[in-house]
Each structure stands twice: as structure tokens, then as C-alpha cells.
């Protein structure tokens, strides 16, 4: 009896230590990455990062990444404008109009599949669709690739969030003489606003941190212009190219850009958490 | 007021109402009683065509209200529902202010003038015996009210669009005794202007507040009479057994 208890305690201790070690290992790696990015990035951080366009190595210390900041912002915004409405409306269909349809379950599954597709595949797909036939990299192609990442994420979170709204709220609004679309606009979206915003912000954070879909689509550009028809720079692709370069000054810029991307992403994720906390239902 | 004629209702192939015929009297409170699954809520939800929301449901027979068969395809359910209101089992406040909750149905009817809204909202809240409690917190979220207040808010919201009939679907079963008492009182007062049909599991409640009572069992209407008769001299053996608590 006592022997059994001791054996159990030892097993318990072993399992606990193993789990803790694994967790510690994971956290250490993450902490190491963040620490390195913070230290190296902080050293390289300067106003010119945001104000100057990239320069050849050696010239003006390699310049800054203004074009990448603006390009990233413009492409993410365009992708959001394209992807968020489609995601929200699609998710609304699944949760509301198509709640009992078989096709909704199929779309939901396909959407989960799309959300976990390696992003390089999306990049290659958009390359074949919008880059090769039109004879060149463009910001539009990059935006479309990012939108394709955003759509399934927003669609599924919308679907799941709307399903959490108590069913009888819909019946209550309908019993007052509302039509179904009025119920969705005035009651369902309002009840699930925080959940919807969370989904949108997380999808944006995910899209803004992607490199692979942009590599084959928007590529890079050393100067910025407001037209998305030409190749367009992004922070992630710049980090990829600069970090792989042999030039000291470019590597420093890559660190700084990595820090900025990390902080922005962290900010978006924290915003999403705040939205989630304010949720009422 | 409402004439139900030979009504059958099917969920897919399940026959949930079998040839129900009854006549709901104007400005009276009619209670629908019966054991769980007997079809009383199904019948109630026919009166505002709430079943239309779900696929594969089918009505047969007629329900005549204001001279028209409301089961007819040509009936506009949105118009129907603004004259036949419904209060549910659990309070269903919308995630907006107390004022906006009550004004919701009015705004659907394109009443947007603020003074008109204000007047109608106050009147509805007064009729629902809630005005005194919420007059200083009209702009606060309705989700902050207590359960009993929320249910009276829902009643006020229903009253605001001035329906002729209000359907209560076990509307006090989720409330404490004091809130229940308030709602019961309210139902009795309201029937001066509106016709009420109420589903209830609570026999004492049916006996206390209703004028007419209908006992349903397995989708059929067993007995329908003045409440006093149902409880004191039922004609049907099933009714007697049910109201004396021997089954159900």
C-alpha cells in the first residue's frame, strides 16, 4: 500500500518535472529570440530607419527602410480592405443563413484547411495568378496574397463568435418584427463585436508578419510609391534579404526592422486580448 | 379574437399538433398547460409564425386573426409579428441601453423622432411597471438590470410596438418568486388592452391569472374551458388527473 503510494508519487514527480522542463525549454528559446531581437534591434534603432529609403551597403550606413514601412502598411491595409469584408460576410453566412446547411460544414472545413496552408504555397499560387500573367511583381499581388491569408482566419472566428450569441436573442428581435438582416446588423454583430474585432486583429497580425507570400508577389523595392502596380517593399521581405546579406550595415537594419515587426505584432495581439476581455457574451 | 381551426403542425415528419381547434377570447388571458412535450409551446409559436425560421416545418389548418388566415403564404410575417408580440422563457435584453431596447421595435417601424420615441418608451416602461426603477438609468446597458427587471424590460419592449396579442412562453419560470409575482400582476393588468396567451408549467399560476385554460396532451387539445371549470369541475378524466397532480 505505502509502496504503491510512493511509486505513484515518484511517477507524479517524474511527469511533473518532464512537463516543466519541456515548458522551460520552449520558453527559453522564445525568451532568447526576443532578448536577442530586443538587444540587437535596440542598438540599430534610429530615426533614419523610418525616414530614409534603403541605400547600397556602405553608402550612408545603408540608409533606412522607409519604403518597407510604407509598403508594408499599404499592402496590409489593402489586404484588410479586401479580406475582412469577405471573411466577415462569409462567416456570417456559415453561422446564420447557412447554419443548417451541409455546404456550411464543408466550407468551414475547407477554410480551416486554407488557414493552415503553408504561406509559401499561397505565394506561389498568387504568383501564378497575378504575377506571371501580368509580367511582373506588384503590390497588388502581395495584397491579394495577404488577403488570402486573412480571409479564412476572419471567416472562422466570425463563424464561431456569432454562434456564441444566444439563439433566443434572434427570436426575440424577430418577434418584434425585425427581418433577419436587421437582426444580424443590430443585434448579432453588436453582441459579438469584441469577438469579431479580436478575429480581425489576430488575422491582421498574422498577415503583417508573413514573408513567404510576399517573396513571390510584391518582392521588394528600394523606393516607395503609392501605386501598388510596381514591386512594393515590405518589412518582412526586407528582413529576409538584409539578414541574409554579407553587409554589416544591412544586417543591423534587419535587426532593427525585426524589433519593430515584433513590437507591432505584440501590440496587435495585446489589442486582441483587450477586445476579448471586454466581451459581454 | 384568434380562431384556431383544425390546426396540425409537423416538425419534419413528426406530428407535433393534432387537429387543434380553439378560440382565444379578446382581452382575456388564456393559459396553455400540459406535460412537457405536449405541444403547448409549439401551438404558441404558431401564433406569430416563429416556426418559419426553421426549415422543414409544415402547418395544416387555419388560424384566423383579424379576419385573415395567418398561416396563408401571402401573410407578411413581419407585420404579423408587430401585432403579435412574444416574451420568452429567459429574459432577452439586447446588448444596448435600456432606452434603445424599448425603442428597438419602434425604430424598426421607422419611428425616429426623438420626442415621440421618448414618450412611447416612457409609456411602455410605465405599463410594464419598470419606469420608476429605470428612469434614471435609461442610458445604461440593459444587461446590468436584474433578471426580473430584464423580463419586465422585454415586456415593455413588446408593449412599445402596441401589439394586440402578447404570447408568453413560460416567462416566469426563470425568475424568483417576487419577480414572478410582479410579472403575474402585470399580465392581469395588461389584459385590459391586450389579449394574452401564456404557456405555463405552473398550475397555480394558471389558476391564479388566467380566464381560460387549455390542457394539451401529446399534441392534442384535451379540454378548453373557463379556468374555474378546468380546475374545479373538469369534464375530462385526463384534465382532472393533471390538475390534481396525478400525472404530468
Domain count of chain A: 2
Structural class of the helices, strands and pairings of chain A?
A: mainly alpha
State mean pLDDT of chain A (0 to 100 scale).
90
Regarding CATH, which class of the largest domain in chain A? Answer: Mainly Alpha
Task: Reconstruct the topology from this structure.
The complex is a heterodimer of chains A (281) and B (248).
Chain A (H helix, E strand, L loop, with lengths): L1 H43 L2 H5 L14 H32 L4 H14 L3 H13 L7 H26 L2 H8 L5 H12 L1 H16 L3 H4 L19 H9 L4 H30 L4
Helix pairs in contact in A: 1-12, 3-6, 3-9, 4-6, 5-6, 6-9, 7-8, 9-12, 11-12
Chain B lengths: L1 E10 L2 E11 L4 E5 L6 H7 L10 E9 L2 E2 L7 H7 E4 L10 H11 L5 H14 L3 H4 L12 H14 L4 E5 L7 H14 L4 E5 L3 H7 L2 E6 L2 E7 H6 L4 H7 L5
Parallel strand pairs in B: 3-8, 3-9, 6-7, 7-8
Antiparallel strand pairs in B: 1-2, 1-4, 4-5, 9-10
Can I get a quick summary?
The complex is a heterodimer of chains A (281) and B (248). Chain A is an all-alpha fold and 281 residues long.
Provide key terms for this protein.
heterodimer; A: about 280 residues; mainly alpha; MetI-like fold; 2 domains; about 75% helix; globular; B: about 250 residues; alpha/beta; Rossmann fold; six-stranded mixed β-sheet; four-stranded antiparallel β-sheet; 10 helices; 10 strands; about 35% helix
Summarize the structure in words.
The complex is a heterodimer of chains A (281) and B (248). Chain A has helices at residues 2-44, 47-51, 66-97, 102-115, 119-131, 139-164, 167-174, 180-191, 193-208, 212-215, 235-243, 248-277. Chain A is mainly alpha-helical and 281 residues long. Chain A is globular and about 70 Å long. The N and C termini of chain A lie far apart (49 Å). Chain B has 248 residues and is of the alpha/beta class. Chain B has a single domain (2-243), classed as Rossmann fold (3-Layer(aba) Sandwich), CATH 3.40.50. Chain B is 37% helix and 26% strand. The longest helix of chain B is centred in the middle third of the chain and has 14 residues, at 114-127. Chain B starts with a strand and ends in a 5-residue tail after the last helix. Classes of the chains: A mainly alpha (281), B alpha/beta (248). The interface between A and B is medium-sized, with 21 and 27 residues.
Amino acid at each position: 500500500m505505502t509502496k504503491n503510494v510512493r511509486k505513484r508519487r515518484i511517477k507524479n514527480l517524474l511527469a511533473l518535472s518532464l512537463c516543466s522542463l519541456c515548458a522551460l525549454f520552449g520558453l527559453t528559446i522564445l525568451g532568447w529570440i526576443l532578448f536577442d531581437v530586443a538587444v540587437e534591434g535596440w542598438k540599430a534603432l534610429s530615426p533614419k530607419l523610418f525616414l530614409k529609403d534603403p541605400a547600397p551597403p556602405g553608402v550612408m550606413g545603408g540608409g533606412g527602410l522607409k519604403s518597407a514601412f510604407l509598403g508594408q502598411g499599404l499592402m496590409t491595409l489593402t489586404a484588410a480592405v479586401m479580406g475582412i469584408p469577405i471573411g466577415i460576410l462569409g462567416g456570417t453566412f456559415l453561422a446564420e443563413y447557412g447554419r443548417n446547411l451541409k455546404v456550411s460544414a464543408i466550407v468551414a472545413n475547407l477554410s480551416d484547411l486554407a488557414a493552415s496552408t503553408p504561406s509559401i504555397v499561397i505565394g506561389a499560387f498568387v504568383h501564378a495568378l497575378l504575377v506571371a500573367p501580368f509580367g511582373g511583381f506588384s503590390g497588388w499581388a502581395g495584397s491579394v496574397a495577404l488577403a488570402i491569408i486573412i480571409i479564412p482566419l476572419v471567416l472562422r472566428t466570425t463563424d464561431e463568435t456569432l454562434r456564441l450569441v444566444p439563439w433566443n436573442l434572434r427570436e426575440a428581435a424577430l418577434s418584434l418584427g425585425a427581418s433577419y438582416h436587421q437582426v444580424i446588423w443590430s443585434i448579432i454583430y453588436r453582441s459579438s463585436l469584441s469577438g469579431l474585432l479580436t478575429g480581425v486583429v489576430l488575422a491582421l497580425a498574422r498577415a503583417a508578419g508573413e514573408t513567404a507570400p510576399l517573396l513571390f508577389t510584391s518582392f521588394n523595392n528600394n523606393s516607395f510609391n503609392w501605386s501598388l502596380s510596381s514591386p512594393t517593399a515590405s518589412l518582412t521581405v526586407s528582413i529576409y534579404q538584409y539578414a541574409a546579406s554579407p553587409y554589416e550595415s544591412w544586417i543591423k537594419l534587419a535587426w532593427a526592422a525585426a524589433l519593430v515587426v515584433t513590437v507591432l505584432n505584440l501590440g496587435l495581439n495585446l489589442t486582441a486580448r483587450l477586445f476579448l476581455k471586454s466581451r459581454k457574451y | 379574437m384568434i380562431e384556431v381551426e383544425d390546426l396540425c403542425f409537423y416538425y419534419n415528419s413528426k406530428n407535433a399538433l393534432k387537429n387543434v381547434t380553439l378560440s382565444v377570447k379578446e382581452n382575456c388571458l388564456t393559459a396553455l398547460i400540459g406535460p412537457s412535450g405536449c405541444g403547448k409551446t409549439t401551438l404558441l409559436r404558431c401564433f406569430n409564425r416563429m416556426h418559419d425560421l426553421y426549415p422543414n416545418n409544415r402547418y395544416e389548418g387555419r388560424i384566423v386573426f383579424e379576419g385573415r388566415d395567418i398561416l396563408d403564404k401571402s401573410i407578411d410575417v413581419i407585420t404579423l409579428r408587430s401585432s403579435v408580440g412574444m416574451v420568452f422563457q429567459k429574459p432577452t435584453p439586447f446588448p444596448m441601453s435600456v432606452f434603445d431596447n424599448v425603442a428597438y421595435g419602434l425604430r424598426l417601424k421607422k419611428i425616429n423622432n426623438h420626442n415621440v420615441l421618448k414618450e412611447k418608451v416612457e409609456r411602455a416602461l410605465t405599463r410594464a411597471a419598470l419606469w420608476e426603477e429605470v428612469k434614471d438609468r435609461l442610458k445604461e446597458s440593459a444587461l446590468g438590470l436584474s433578471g426580473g427587471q430584464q423580463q419586465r424590460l422585454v415586456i415593455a419592449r413588446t408593449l412599445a410596438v402596441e401589439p394586440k396579442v402578447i404570447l408568453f412562453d413560460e416567462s416566469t419560470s426563470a425568475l424568483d418568486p417576487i419577480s414572478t409575482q410582479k410579472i403575474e400582476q402585470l399580465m392581469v393588468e395588461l389584459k385590459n388592452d391586450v389579449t394574452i396567451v401564456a404557456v405555463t408549467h405552473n398550475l397555480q399560476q394558471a389558476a391564479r391569472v388566467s380566464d381560460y385554460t387549455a390542457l394539451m396532451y401529446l399534441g392534442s387539445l384535451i379540454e378548453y374551458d373557463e379556468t374555474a371549470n378546468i380546475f374545479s369541475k373538469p369534464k375530462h378524466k385526463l384534465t382532472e388527473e393533471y390538475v390534481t397532480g396525478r400525472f404530468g
